[in-house]
Amino acid sequence: MQQLTVALAKGRLADEAVNLLEQCGVRCAPLRENTRKLVLGDADNKYRFIFVKPADVPTYIERGAADLGVVGKDTLLEESKDIYEMLDLKFGACRMCVAGFREQRARVTHNKLRVASKYVRIARDYYAAKGVDVDIVKLTGSVELGPIIGLADVIVDIVESGKTLEANGLAVLEEICKLSARVAVNKVSLKTRKDEIMPLIEKMRQITEGRCL
To answer: Is the pTM of this model over 0.85?
Structure first.
C-alpha cells in the first residue's frame, strides 16, 4: 500500500504533531532521530513525513505533494489555498491581533492607516471588512519596529504572551481571531484515500477532545 504523505511545519508545531501522532499509534521513532533529512518514514512504513517551512505546508497539500498536513490557522488564512481544514488540534494556541501604542487614535494624522505585517492578506481582509482604507507595509520580521520608528501606525501580528509588545511600549488594540494548529487535507486525497485518512483524523479528534475535557 502506498504511504500517506504528511507535511509538517518545521519547529514547535512539528514536535507537537509528532507527540500527537504517537498517541494515535503511529511509531514515530525515526522522526526523533538527529538528522537533517527532510523526508522520513515511520517505523511501520505507513507514512511519509516531509518537513517544510510553515508557509509552504498548504501549497504541498493543495498541489497533491502531501495528502494531509499540520499547519497553523494563521498560515491557512494567509495562504488561502483550495484545501480542506479538518480539525482544530488545540495546541500552538495564540491570537492574531492589531497592536500599537495605546493612544493610537491620536497619532493618526494622515488619510490611510498604515499597517505593518507579515500577514498581508489577513490584514487587508480584516480592514476591508471594517471599511477602513489602509496602506499595508509588508515586513517579515520585528514588525514591532513599525510603530516605534514611524514606519506604520499599527501592526497585525501573532500574539502569544504579549511580553514582546509590552517590552517595546506597545499593546493589543484589537483581536482579529484566535489561532491554533489545524489538520488540513488535499481534496482529491480525501476522496481517494478516505479510508486511510479519516481513521487517523478521528483518533486525533478523540485525543484532542480528551485534552479539553
So the answer is: yes
